[in-house]
Amino acid sequence: MKNYFETKFAAQPRMEMSLDGIPFKCISEEDNDMICKEFNEQEILEAVSQCGSSKSLGLDGYNFYFIKNNWEEVGPDMLLSLR
After folding, report:
1. Structure confidence at residue 62 (pLDDT)
2. Looking at the domain assignment, is residue 57 inside a domain?
3. Which residues touch 44 (CB under 8 Å, ≥6 apart)?
4. How many domains does the chain have?
5. Model pTM score
6. Which phi and psi (to 5°) does residue 2 adopt?
7. Using CA atoms, how far apart are residues 24 and 28, in angstroms rounded to an integer?
8. What is the DSSP letter of 8?
9. 21 domain residue, yes or no
């Protein structure tokens, strides 16, 4: 019984992904860790500052001009919604 489960749940060799025979490249563990980590406030603020002021995140009517000019008031709530 022990051998059955050891075999069933043993680590498998890295599986190659393909779609219709076209292989996908895999990213490194380091790159995966980087893109999966949480954003910090400075990174979010930099991203917001690079967005066009007339652009909007959604249909709520708040554009980036509003967000940039009221960051001290709306920023903390936006950061909470990302967590």
Report:
1. 87
2. yes
3. 75, 78, 79, 82
4. 1
5. 0.54
6. -60, -45
7. 13
8. H
9. no
The pLDDT score that the predictor gives to residue 9 is 77
Share of the chain above pLDDT 70, in %: 92
The whole-angstrom separation of Cα 52 and Cα 65 is: 8
The count of C-alpha atoms lying within 13 angstroms of the C-alpha of 82, restricted to the half-sphere facing its C-beta, is: 13
55 within some domain: yes
In a domain, 32, yes or no: no
Residue 29's nearest CA partner among 9, 14, 17 is 14
Average per-residue pLDDT for the chain:
84
Q: Is residue 60 over pLDDT 80? A: no
Domain of 68 in residue numbering reads as 39-83
DSSP class per residue in 31-81: HHHHHHSPPPHHHHHHHHHHS-TT-BSSTTS-BHHHHHHTHHHHHHHHHHH
